[in-house]
């Protein structure tokens, strides 16, 4: 199945599920009424279920409200975070001016005039950093996870304990040593280098993701590898044909986490990069702090949504893999 068709099928399924929600609610209510009349459930039990459902619905609404607010702010002219007119903008003021500004006038795509490929914008910088992060990270994560899962060697347990420790500190260790990190990069002439930044992000992503993928590989029966080797497969053939295909959900989770490590990080990028190499996260911060007396919240909201949209889209289409990988990989360890 091609990727466009898979995406279309998933969207169609989700829309059908959403459209049938009122029908399912109606049938659930009919079942509850029937159970009360026949004595299978008491009215108190039904009331508890209704209360729990309403409470969960209210919680979801509260969690989604900031998303509504920033979307409304990106569409409303002259949006403000606080207004005497309330928090619901006037629908008559809605427009796409902020998005046009973000695409054609901001540093999102180009730093010069729109279409000037000699001055790529923050999106190109972020994509370059993420590409390096994923390439270097996955090249280290997969063989390391396999070795820790399948091989016994000197110091293996100490390495595993060390990984458990570093999963708790992770990139926070680099942030805590920010001054030393900047001095080290500066003395080596490695500041304002997107490739080096991507390698650093990959390094900070290794402990947690290696541990996560190793835990997932622990659940793959060794007999599969033994059968492949009996048939004449070598070590790398076994990894390529057996381990990697069976680890797809775990690999999907690790890939997303590694990608997020390079896409979302802000503090290190702001410290090491100069304006021409700013990534999207730093560019968004600059937009929020550029105004001396006020912040252009409409443009800021539009830029923030475009920045966050790839994260939402990727997680939306990889949701099943992520849930499967996290649940299955968390069975042991």
Summarize the entry for a quick read.
The protein is mainly α and 333 residues long.
CATH class of the largest domain: Mainly Alpha
Shape: flat
List the uncertain runs.
Answer: 329-333
Strand content: under 5%
The CATH homologous superfamily of the largest domain is called MetI-like
CA-based gyration radius: 25 Å
- Total number of beta strands: 0
Report the end-to-end length measured between terminal Cα atoms.
35 Å
Helix content: over 70%
Integer count of domains? 2
The overall average pLDDT, rounded, is 82
Going by CATH, the architecture of the largest domain would be Orthogonal Bundle
**Biggest β-sheet strands, sense, barrel:** none
Order of helices and strands: HHHHHHHHHHHHHHHH
Helical/strand content category: mainly alpha
Q: Could you characterize what this model shows?
A:
This protein starts with a helix and ends with a helix. The longest helix has 33 residues, at 43-75. The chain has 2 domains: 20-95, no CATH class; 122-329, MetI-like (MetI-like fold, Orthogonal Bundle), CATH 1.10.3720. It has helices spanning 3-19, 21-38, 43-75, 97-104, 122-150, 156-169, 171-176, 178-187, 194-217, 222-230, 235-246, 248-263, 267-272, 280-290, 297-317, 319-329. By secondary structure, it is an all-alpha fold. It is built from 16 helices and no strands.
Note the topology:
Blueprint: H1 3-19, H2 21-38, H3 43-75, H4 97-104, H5 122-150, H6 156-169, H7 171-176, H8 178-187, H9 194-217, H10 222-230, H11 235-246, H12 248-263, H13 267-272, H14 280-290, H15 297-317, H16 319-329
Helix pairs in contact: 3-15, 4-15, 5-9, 5-12, 6-9, 9-12, 9-16, 10-11, 12-16, 14-15
Family: Belongs to the binding-protein-dependent transport system permease family. MalFG subfamily.
Pfam family, one: BPD_transp_1
Protein name: Sugar ABC transporter permease
């Amino acid at each position: 199945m091609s990727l466009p068709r898979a995406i279309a099928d998933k969207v169609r399924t989700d829309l059908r599920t959403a459209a049938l929600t009122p029908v399912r609610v109606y049938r659930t209510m009919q079942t509850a009424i029937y159970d009360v009349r026949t004595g299978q459930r008491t009215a108190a039990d039904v009331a508890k279920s209704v209360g729990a459902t309403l409470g969960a619905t209210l919680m979801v609404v509260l969690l989604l409200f900031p998303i509504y607010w920033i979307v409304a702010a990106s569409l409303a002219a002259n949006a403000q975070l606080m207004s005497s007119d309330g928090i619901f903008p006037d629908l008559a003021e809605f427009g796409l001016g902020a998005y046009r500004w973000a695409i054609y006038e901001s540093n999102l795509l180009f730093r010069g005039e729109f279409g000037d490929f000699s001055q790529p914008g923050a999106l190109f910088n972020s994509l370059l950093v993420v590409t390096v992060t994923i390439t270097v990270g996955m090249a280290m994560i997969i063989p390391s996870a396999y070795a820790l899962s399948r091989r016994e060697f000197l110091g293996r347990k100490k390495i595993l304990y060390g990984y458990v420790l570093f999963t708790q500190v992770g990139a926070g260790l680099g942030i805590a040593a920010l001054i030393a990190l900047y001095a080290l990069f500066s003395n080596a002439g490695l500041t304002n280098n997107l490739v080096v930044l991507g390698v650093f992000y990959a390094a900070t992503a290794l402990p947690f993701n290696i541990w996560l993928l190793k835990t997932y590989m622990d659940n793959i029966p060794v007999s599969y590898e033994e059968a492949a080797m009996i048939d004449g497969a070598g070590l790398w053939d076994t990894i390529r044909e057996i381990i990697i295909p069976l680890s797809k959900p775990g690999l999907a989770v690790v890939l997303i986490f590694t990608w997020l490590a390079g896409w979302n990080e802000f503090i290190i990028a702001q410290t090491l990069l100069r304006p021409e190499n700013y990534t999207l996260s730093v560019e968004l911060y600059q937009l929020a702090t550029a105004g001396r007396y006020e912040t252009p919240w409409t443009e800021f909201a539009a830029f923030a949504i475009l920045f966050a949209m790839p994260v939402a889209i990727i997680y939306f289409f990889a949701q099943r893999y992520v849930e499967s990988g996290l649940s299955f990989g968390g069975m042991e360890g």
